[in-house]
Structures are given as structure tokens and as C-alpha cells.
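Hi U.,

Before I forget, here's the chain from the pilot set. I'm dumping it here mostly so it's searchable later in email.
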Amino acid sequence: MVQYLTSSRFYFEIDGVTSLFVKKVSGPSISLKVAGGDAAIGVSKDAKTQTQATIGGVEYDSRITLTYVGGNESDQKKLYDWYNKCHVDTYSGGGSEATKSRKTGSLVIYDPDGKEAMRFNFTDLFPGTATQINSLSVDSGGQLAEDSLELYFTQVTRKV
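Structure:
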């Protein structure tokens, strides 16, 4: 029996960050480029043509983007502190702890019964660009403060 997984039943965790309210996870993306396919590669008896398609290359984006409820609570602060550890301060320069601050993480997708349907484990997570999507002001009534963080990784494995 085929089970349909709804988009609102997922959970993303990073080492030490387990209570983050994630709104959206996007990425990674893999694209296969096709060589040939549309044009004939030759013609034979009775003017029959033959086409052939083959993989001409693979484009792979080893990046995922988390959109989560912003703030200065425990898990948001942990992400902010991790980001700062991994990126050199613009004014003071110097080194960062990027090499030794890599983390692991998992995207867990639940079935309609609330049981784990699949899990994607990410290795060597590293924070990329951090963005504040919405900030609270008098004019932003009814909106949540949202932050976005790009995460780079070296490996992803799917566990069922």
C-alpha cells in the first residue's frame, strides 16, 4: 500500500539542537544533464532514425536551507552561537573554529500515524549564510519572526 506523506509532518535536528521550530526545509538538489536525446544519431534502411540519450553530467547542490521561528531562545541561540564560531568576525579577523565545529543532523519525515517513515542523515554540517527574514515591528502585526540558515554538508544517507 502506498502511503502519502504530508508536508507538515517532519522534524529537523542538529547535534544539540532538538527543539527548534522549523517552518521549512529545502534542498539538496540533484540534476542530471542529458546529452543527445532530441537529435538523431544516425539513419538506417527505410530512413529510420535512431536517437540516444546519455547522462552528460550531474549537478549536485550539497546545501539545505532551514527556515525557522526566529528569536533568542535556547535552540535559536545555539544556532547563532554555532554560526559565530564558524565564521571569522569581520572587524577583528583571526581564525575560526570552523574545522572542529562540524555537526551531524537529521531530517525525519513522519507517516500519517506519527511513526518515522524515513530519515535523511547529514554529515559534516557547516553553517553558511544566515538571514533574518522577518523582524517584528509595529507594522508586522500577525507575522512571526523567521530566520533562515543555509547548511552545507559532505554526505547525506537515507535510512528507512
